Amino acid sequence: MHCYILKADNPKIKIDMEKRLYLLLLFILICLPGLTQVKAPPQLGKDPVNKIVAAMTAEEKAAIVVGTGMRMPGAPSEASKALEKMSPVVGQTRDLVPGAAGTTHAIPRLGIPSIVVADGPAGLRISPTRPNDNATYYCTAFPVATLLASTWDVDLVNRVGQAMGKEVLEYGVDILLGPGLNIHRNPLCGRNFEYYSEDPFVTGKMAAAMVNGVESNGVGTSVKHFDANNAETNRNSLNTIVSERALREIYLKGFGMAVSEAQPWSVMSSYNLINGTYAAENHDLLTNVLRNDWGFSGFVMTDWFGGRDAVAMMVAGNDLLMPGNPGQTKAILDAVNTGKLDVKVLDRNISRILNIILESPRFRGYVYSNKPDLNGHARITRQAASEGMVLLKNGNSALPFSDEIKKVAAFGNTSYDIITGGTGSGDVNEAYSISLVGGLQNAGLTVDGNLSDLYEAYLKAAKAGRPRSRGFMAGSVPVSELSVNDDIINSIVNVTDAAIITIGRNSGEGFDRKDVAGDFELSAPERMLIESVSRTYHEKGKKVAVILNIGGVIETASWKEIPDAILLAWQAGQETGNSIADILVGKVNPSGKLASSFPVKYRDVPSAANFPGKVTATDQNQKPAEGDMMQAFMRPRPAEVTYEEGIYSGYRYYTTFKVPVSYEFGFGLSYTDFEYSGLRLGSPRFGRSLTVSIDVKNTGNTDGKEIVQLYLSAPSKNLEKPLLELKGFGKTRLLKPGDSQTLTFTLTGMDLASFDTGASSWIAEKGTYTIKIGASSEAIKQSAAFSLGKDLTVKKESPALHPQVKIKELSAR
Ligand code: BGC
To answer: Cystine design at 211: which of 223, 259, 262, 503 (Cβ 3.0–4.6 Å)?
Structure first.
């Protein structure tokens, strides 16, 4: 008689009594041939995964490393047909959770179930309704990642993750395809809303908090897109040429932190090539760096249809090919049979997948309710959203609205048609969303009805007349801003106490944004709206606040002087309107700060000259129509981009090269003031680590939280260094006026080190280091120096990912 001994030994998973009983039952069923259809596997003893692998046929092995394919509801018919051809239905497992992105193959005779994976970073993405079913399956649209990073609050992000993961569990999904942690290399990347920051330290901390939060439910995450996937244009074929130092310090760092601080169940490799090799086929990336250097122990999956050569992906350590197609299974089976692929490599990949499957809710037989606590999660999203909104300007203390402000005018299309999140796989099917106007009304303010009627009628007509979509997965074509003439503004100013103007932007998967009016720049009607409304209201002594309902950075320098206040609301999830109103009326004191810089003009961005890269083959037959994602998947055009700015991305560039910005990294205002004092170091010399403490006091009149940032300026003898780099941050609790809090940070050798490519090592150079505690990257409040007596090799890494060509990198020397 053969028995499985099943052990869920991931500490994150607390097996309660119910699950233990289930495991016992499963044990009995499997151990008693005749009672079950399950064919008894060989004696498994203590090591179930190895035993299962040993019991698998070659066909089963080639099947389990390839997903079950994908159906594309709503895709244009040509695209659907092409996809169906690539991914015919294999078994019935694809529809376990309708609308999920994919499933793995089951091997029923060995007791291995399919597991379900679903997007995405801002909340679970599944179909909200199902045929012949009256129930609904809505999920919470949480704030986008850019907003979450702007909270600088890892505990809050962890709580958002817990709530998100609960929906994953209760809707029967095993792995969430998120968080996304690519770096905001350029403000125009269409998916920046899914990513956290231009800074790898913020990115890594946020991602780790999110992964730990989601996975505390006993479900998995897949951190994506690994790696250097910083543009959407030609994303399936873009060869990213980048130095190893820039990779290690900027583009890999956040992933490394997420692995060491949260050990996610899986990693998703990206579509692009890195220095000539597809990420999914890149042994350096997926084995040398991810596993050997960082100790990753989960499995790697491709992005959807990513990579080209199934066998090369297996060898590189890309364990699972998603969504999977039978051609890949055949290629793997053939390669094993002909000896081209060592079966040991396949077994290794299978083991990694099985390790996770054995931890999954589906394997554990978790009985999901399809009823997560959506009301409770709405409260979490509302709070998280208001904590990550950034007050960019507050002239004459325009905000919060005083008690005299009872009736407001809401200008701007998106005051009525709020954008809760970006488009593509990162979009969530939520039950409702609160518009700005809805939020203002909920907060007890009256919103001018004539203006509302005008906008509502305009939006209805404009939406009826517009093309349905810009392409597969893209959002709807935006409605151009209503031009409101001066007569209307003149009549409305007399019946309202203040004006709000909302500026909206949306973007998403498959597209990058453009440096043009109506996208990075304001459109002419938006500019006129800000100018005319501000002029008219100011003439009457009334205030104007601009709300930025955007997913990525836009131009602000040319118009920011005009309105009284600017609140960067980001795309804040389904409660966006309520969260904005909480700040406008002073129920919440804003405490968000920027995790990405706002440049003066697009040309100032260090990657502006080469973003998003260029097509390297000009065969017109291969040219997909703009936005045709399916074409892009099937027949991508060869393209490349060189990261000439090297390590100087974001504030590392602006501060080192003294390029002024409109709003700097780390910037954000509050309704109160803070004083920093008493900076002290554990020692004037660095030993193995160093503690740093600072006192922060609320010196204003309103309760508030302050985000404190620790920057380090390092000596630069052999390796050049940016002027400063973020190495720590903390957020105070809600401080009452007069209250203080001490924040303490610990620096390790790694925080002092830079990557020396020649030595393949992180090296801290001897000399004097300066700690700069700031309210932003420019508002440094206190500094102190310490010394390092001799050069320190902090960590040796595998030499990896070298560019094949010489890169002319930006240098400050
Ligand atoms: C996206 C991934 C997503 C996957 C599954 C891809 O197109 O790039 O982020 O997880 O689809 O929906």
So the answer is: 262
22 pLDDT tier (thresholds 50, 70, 90): very low
Cis peptide before 400 (omega within 30 of 0): yes
Strands, E, within 344-450: which ranges?
Answer: 390-394, 407-411, 446-447
Question: pTM score > 0.90 for this model?
Answer: yes
| Structure token digits, residue 409 | 């005018």
Cα torsion 282, 287, 288, 289 to 10°: value is 90
DSSP per-residue letters across 512-579:
---SSBTTTBPPHHHHHHHHHHHHHHHHTT-EEEEEEE-SS----TTTTTSSSEEEE-----TTHHHH
Please determine, for residue 17, whether its predicted confidence score (pLDDT) is greater than 60: no
Between CA 602 and CA 605 the distance in angstroms is 6
Q: Active site residue: 303, 564, 582, 628, which one?
A: 303
- Assess contact for 319 and 284: CB atoms under 8 A: no
Candidate of 229, 302, 304 to mutate for ligand 1, largest count of ligand atoms within 8 Å of Cβ: 304
At how many degrees (to 10) do helices 449-465 and 486-493 cross? 150
- Work out which ligand 1 atom sits closest to the CA atom of 119: 10
- Neighbouring residues of 550: CB distance < 8 A, sequence distance ≥ 6: 419, 503, 504, 505, 568, 570, 571
Query: What tokens does 796 get?
Result: 């040796």
- Going from the C-alpha of 485 to that of each of 462, 503, 526, 700, the distances in angstroms are 18, 17, 12, 40
Alpha-carbon dihedral sign for residues 476, 392, 542, 737:
positive
Write out residues with Cβ below 6 Å of ligand 1: 101, 119-120, 177, 224, 303-304, 425, 509
Q: Quick check: 768 pLDDT over 90?
A: yes
Which residue from 753, 739, 740, 681 is spatially nearest to 710, judged by alpha carbons? 681
User: For residue 320, what pLDDT band results from cuts at 50, 70 and 90?
Assistant: very high
Distance 100 CA to ligand 1 centre (A): 11
Distance 67 CA to ligand 1 centre (A): 14
Selection from 486, 525, 535 nearest residue 503 by Cα = 525
- Residue % of the chain over a pLDDT of 70: 88
Neighbours of 22 (CB within 10 A): 17
For residue 307, report the distance from its CA to the centre of ligand 1, in Å.
13
How do residues 38-52 score in pLDDT, each as one tens digit? 333 334 468 899 999
Distance (Å, rounded) from C-alpha 116 to C-alpha 582?
37
Q: What are phi and psi of 568, to 5 degrees?
A: -85, 105
* Rounded-to-integer distance, Cα 309 and Cα 580, Å: 48
Cα 96–chain centre separation: 26
Mean pLDDT, all residues of the chain: 91
Please give the number of the atom of ligand 1 that sits closest to the Cα of 426.
9
Using the atom order of ligand 1, give the atom closest to the CA of residue 102.
Answer: 5
Q: Give pLDDT tens digits for 146-180.
A: 999 999 999 999 999 999 999 999 999 999 999 99
453 tagged catalytic = no
In sequence order, the 6+-apart residues with CB closer than 8 A to the CB of 383 are 156, 579
With the most atoms of ligand 1 within 8 angstroms of its CB, the residue from 270, 301, 303 to mutate is 303
- pLDDT greater than 60 at residue 630: no
Q: What's the gap between Cα 200 and its chain centre?
A: 12
| Strand 498-504 to 543-549 pairing | parallel
Tokens, residue 709: 């940032």
